Each structure stands twice: as structure tokens, then as C-alpha cells.
Amino acid sequence: MKATKLAEGVYWVGAIDWNLRDYHGYTLPGTTYNAYLVVGKKHTALIDNTYPGHEFQMMERIKDIIDPKKIDIIVANHVEKDHSGALPMLTKLLPGVPIYCTEAAVTGFGKYYDTKGWNFKTVKSLDKIDLGGKTLVFVEAPMLHWPDSMFTYLAEDKILFPNDAFGQHIAGCERFDDELGKEASFAHAQKFFANLIVPLAPKVLKKLDEVTKLGIPISMVAPSHGIIWRSYAGDIITAYVNWSHGVAKNKVTIVYDTMHHSTDMMAQMLAEGVMAEGVAVKVCMLKDGRFEGTHRSNVVTEILDSKAVLVGSPTLQDEVYPTVADFLSYLHGVRPGRLTAKKIGFAFGSHGGQGGAIKIVTEGLKKAGIETINDGYEVLYKPDAAELAKLYELGREVARKVKTM
Questions:
Q1: Which of 15, 266, 378, 400 would disulfide-bridge 50, Cβ 3.0–4.6 Å?
Q2: Are 1 and 50 in contact (CB under 8 A)?
Q3: Residue 263 sits in the same domain as residue 200
Q4: Mean confidence (pLDDT) of the chain
Q5: Are 283 and 150 in the same domain?
Q6: Which of 216, 245, 274 is the last residue of a domain?
Q7: The CATH number of the domain where 229 resides is what?
Q8: Which CDD domains does the annotation name (predicted)?
Q9: Which of 192, 215, 245 is the last residue of a domain?
Q10: Is the CB of residue 188 less than 8 Å from the CB of residue 168?
Q11: In the predicted model, is pLDDT for residue 34 greater than 60?
Q12: Residues sharing a CB contact under 8 Å with residue 170, sequence separation 6 or more, in sequence order
């Protein structure tokens, strides 16, 4: 197993998890656990490590560069086990090795592992380590995305190691953005942001502003999952700023499920009305959520760059349809309403008795921070010609609002 060179004395020595398909509640085509080796004239540092069970890959890649026993500094940017799972093995191999991390991380590691005898060195923002021609600078990043999180910056090579920030879940032979291609790299980054980073958007903006004020140049961004940004480092930072502000397209995402195709008919007619106004639309039926395209994690990715979200459900036993309830719970956790720019939407659906699902959906949209522009639209049994015409006009109405936002 071979290491990958980022710069002179700097190497990717991580692991590829080809088989992971579900993580943090969303689908993924595998992932990588990125670890980085920085070889200075005086010291050698390992930044982050791997999920338990993947230590072998990392150790073999380290051996491609040096004897692992020559590592004399460990940097732990984050407690979560997909970044720290090799620490028990490393501390046995390297007894007494200093582990640089935040104060909050010490507490976290103590909950995950038996840390008796571990040599923690707590750091704060702008603390430094001189490796000999290689200077590591630490930047605390609490709640990006855990309280213990921090970034590490390699000053001489202008490389930022931001742990989960700017990452993507993808497994492949490509290590860099230009190898995977810009479009694919950004698509995976958008899904990662939409599912994991949106709840933290205000903190992202604050931290990026802090990093900008420090005046540190960044030529490469090396996250702990996915490809490394060397050709589009500036572009992904700009994308994070835009996504955090809620910058979106003239686009409507329609999400729904259906029992006897009545709600399906409603969704299709809403989509026709949106398209009639020249606005893009994405229609996602949750019944097919077992497939890649309409899994809830892909739906919220579509919502990230949409200005409007329409959610439909039939009423089942006086409640919202189960798949829609699941989606609304997930959407509330993501809470796109945290973004600076607002998103609008409304509920729709069909029923065979008293109805009521659209009231639950409307409350779910509000809970997620989406501004509802009406009380929803509900039909008895199956929409007739007049009701389909009304849905078409509702689609046109939301599209016209989108164009003015």
C-alpha cells in the first residue's frame, strides 16, 4: 500500500473504506479516513487516523515513507472514532507519544477509550509546533462539528487540515479534486454539507471569517474524508460561504409519498406549474427512498440549493404518511432555516376522511425553519379537473415567488 505525496515531506497515509453505504443517516458510496504524515527535520507528526478495523491500511502506507516508530507527535483534530479509532493501537506502539488536541477532546477520548497513560498536550488557537522546517499551527473550531474539533495548518506548505470541514464521503482511487473532476468533487461536497454542515452554518461563517482575519494563505485543503482540494481550494471555501448563506438557484424541490397515486398526481401537476414559469424543479417520491436518487439524504442535498420546498403526504390513520414523517424528522435535524437566506414552501396531500396530514407537514416545515406561504392544499380522495388546475396555478405561484427572492 502506497502513500500519496501532497508536498515535500507531506503525505496522505489514510484508509479507503470501499463498503460503507450508510453513515450519519445518509447513503454514501464508501468513504476514506484521511490521515496525514508530516516529516520535519526534527519531528514527524501524524495528523488524524482511521476508523477501528482500518489501521492496517494506514500503517502500511506509513511504512512506505518511514518506520512508524519514528512518529513522535500525534495530532488529534477530532474525537469521533472515524478519526481516532487507531489511537489505542498507536499509543501501544508509541508509548508516551504526545497527543496534541483541545481540552474538550481529552474528556471525549476518556469516554471512548481507556486513556490511562496517554500523554495529552492540550492546545488553543494559534499554538504552534516546530517540526523542523515544518510549522503546525492549531485553530480551535468548537462545534465544527463537535465541541472538541480543531483545524491544523501547515504554514510552510500552506495546507489546511480542517478535519470534517470541506470533506466528502466517497471511496475511490482518486486522491485529489482535479483527478476526480470539479463537478463530481463539488457534488459530493454539497451532499456532505447538506447533511452534516447545514446545522452548523452560522459557526462555519464565523470560523471562516476568523481564518480570513488571521491572514493565512491556503493553497491546499486536506480534509479527513474524501478528496484533497489542491486545484479548487479557493472555490470550495467560496462554496462553503455561499452554502452557509443559503445562496440557492431558482429551483423548487417537491418531496412526497403516495398510497393510491392521488398525492402523486398532485405533485406532478405542481411540477408542471413550476416548469411553466421557467423555474427548475426536482420531484422526489420517498417510496423509492431505498434507491440512491430519493433517499432522504439526497433529497436534503437538492433542498440545499433550492429556494422552495413543497412536501406532500396522504393522511393515514389521522397522521402523516410514515415515510414523510421520517423525512420531516430528518429535515428538522438538518434545519435549513439556519441558513441566512430563507426558503419558502407549503404542504399538500390527499385524504379519504377527515384529513389532517397537511397540518402536520406544515408544522414540520416551520420547525425546520422553512417559511410557509399558505396553509397547504388538501383534496378528498382523488383530485378532479378543477383541483388539478388549482395545483397547476399553485405551482406557477411558488415559481413566481422564487424568481423574486
A1: 15
A2: no
A3: no
A4: 94
A5: no
A6: 245
A7: 3.60.15.10
A8: flavodiiron_proteins_MBL-fold (cd07709)
A9: 245
A10: yes
A11: yes
A12: 28, 29, 30, 31, 32, 180, 188, 225, 226, 227
Is position 348 within any domain?
yes
Residues 256 and 240 placed together within one structural domain of the fold: no
Q: What is the separation, in whole angstroms, between the first and last Cα of the chain?
A: 51
Cell of 203: 459557526
Rounded to 10°, the helix 262-276/385-404 angle is 40
Q: Are both 315 and 387 inside the same structural domain?
A: yes
One domain, residues 238 and 281: no
Same domain, 231 and 257: no
- Report whether 274 contacts 400 (CB < 8 A): no
292 and 170 inside one domain: no
pLDDT single digits (tens) 175-218:
999 999 999 999 999 999 999 999 888 888 888 888 888 888 99
Residues 75 and 214 in one domain: yes
Its domain, for residue 102, covers 4-245
Which single residue is written with the C-alpha cell 472514532?
Answer: 81
3-state SS track over the chain: CCCEEEECCEEECCEEECCCCEECCEECCCEEECCEEEECCCCEEEECCCCCCCHHHHHHHHHCCCCHHHCCEEECCCCCHHHHCCHHHHHHHCCCCEEEECHHHHHHHHHHCCCCCCEEEECCCCCEEECCCCEEEEEECCCCCCCCCEEEEECCCCEEECCCCCCCCCCCCCCEHHHHCHHHHHHHHHHHHHHHHHHHHHHHHHHHHHHHHHCCCCCEECCCCCCEECCCHHHHHHHHHHHHHCCCCCEEEEEECCCCCHHHHHHHHHHHHHHHCCCEEEEEEHHHCCCCCCCHHHHHHHHHCCCEEEEECCEECCEECHHHHHHHHHHHHHCHHHCCCCCEEEEEEEECCCCCHHHHHHHHHHHCCCEECCCCEEEECCCCHHHHHHHHHHHHHHHHHHHHC
In the chain, the amino acid numbered 289 is G
Residue 405 lies in a domain: no
